[in-house]
Amino acid sequence: MPLMRIQIDSDRYTARRVLELHRAGRIHHESRNAARDEVWRRGRTPAAEPVFIGITNGRPVRLVYDVEVHSDTTA
User: Fold this and answer.
1) Side-chain-side CA neighbours of residue 28 (13 Å)
2) How remote is the C-alpha of 71 from its chain's centroid?
3) pLDDT digits (tens, 9 = 90+) for 8-64
4) Which of 11, 35, 41, 64 reaches 20 to 30 Å from 56, CA-CA?
5) Are residues 8 and 31 in contact, defined by beta-carbon separation less than 8 angstroms?
6) What top-level branch of life does the organism fall under (predicted)?
7) The Cα angle at residue 71 between residues 5 and 74, in degrees rounded to 5
8) What gap in Å lies between CA 7 and CA 28, rounded to an integer?
9) Which residues contact 38 (CB under 8 A, 6 or more apart)?
10) In degrees to the nearest 10, what's the CA dihedral of 31, 35, 41, 46?
11) Is the peptide bond before 60 cis (omega within 30 degrees of 0)?
12) Rounded CA gap, 41 and 27, in Å?
């Protein structure tokens, strides 16, 4: 299945918290849901849960997720 890379704007505090949760094997549900919602906004259907990849160093800080999408749905 194809992957869609999603970047979500965040603040530094939240980005650090998401990274800490990821390292502890836990999930930041709000950002994962935001990544899933962004896939839907782009007209694709998620095929699996978003996978946290990391954070960017730019400003604004962005959370990076990869989301598997169904290949047969497009906007």
Assistant:
1) 23
2) 18
3) 999 999 999 999 999 999 999 999 999 999 999 999 999 999 999 999 998 899 999
4) 41
5) yes
6) Bacteria
7) 85
8) 15
9) 6, 8
10) -140
11) yes
12) 22
